[in-house]
User: Fold this.
Amino acid sequence: MSANAELVIDLDQYRDNLAALRAYAPEALQMAVVKANAYGHGMAPMARAARQGGADWLGVATPEEALALRAAGDEGPLLCWLMTPGVPFGRLAEAGIDVTASTVEQLEAIADASDRPRVQVKVDTGLSRNGAFGPEWDELARAAGRLQAAGRVEITGIWSHFACADEPGHPANDHQEAVFRAAVDQLAAEGVTTPLRHIANSAATVVRPSSHFDLVRVGIASYGLDPDPAVPVPEVRPVLTARTVLANVKRVPAGASVSYGWRWTAEHETTLGLVPVGYGEGIHRTASNKAHVGFAGTAVPVRGTICMDQLVVDLGDRPASIGDPVTLFGPGDDGEPTAEDWARAAGTIGYEIVTRLAGRWSRTYRGER
Assistant:
């Protein structure tokens, strides 16, 4: 962990973002999604802030994440959804964690593991990942009704996930919502009439009110990143700032080449700054020669290949000294790029920029209560 490579996470802004998103779905409960280490922001601190900010539920992918939240002291409603062989269903039930069943076999294994565990069933409405569809859904709905009637499980929810909510006009959205409504009716016909219904992610929360049902799941937008350029959320702001300091400064002549492969050569005399983070910290190598960082109130370009531990930026004729601050990305208030800017440079999405942050960063949380 480097003392000079720091992620600064603004918990007040995170809570403000949750409040802004709640205004889009005021009649629905809100689930704050904190999977994947809270999209790189730190799972336990973000989960605490989410509860303080009024989130009704937390959502994680894996049982390990769910149990880690309980070990960190969280006691509220919590759903996990990625079940793999060997899942400790008994421990999850004892911890009061809702688990997801996507097959009859999973539902029966959950029922066998403890006394009346809390289960949400997932229907595949067209994403073709987890969840049951077609005849498999018919069987899962029947099994849910049978096992709940026998007192062996408590079915607390039915849910699904959009494939194209970040493309508001895509026909998949109408199709998936119709399939979901039919699945809700089918589950009710099997005698399961009171579960929580949810399908909306961040994008659908913002642009598709018809999909809000009983609960919306807010992930990327809660961290201040737009789900997609087609779905801007102007009321939220980035929560995370990635910053460090210059490790070296040197003046180089025209013709000097930079980094592995000599993929950039100076056309005229310039000042180079060495930034002590690289792909070992999750910085995308594919952004070489395309990304910018914030320095002295402006954005300066990355030059040459991004390395494992460091990258080089072109400071031009700006005054610079070792130890001067550098912001890789943040809210953009001081001329620095945002995570979305880095995503465009790297040919990816903002989700990946923040979620991949790893390695030798330290984390500083502002606004802790």
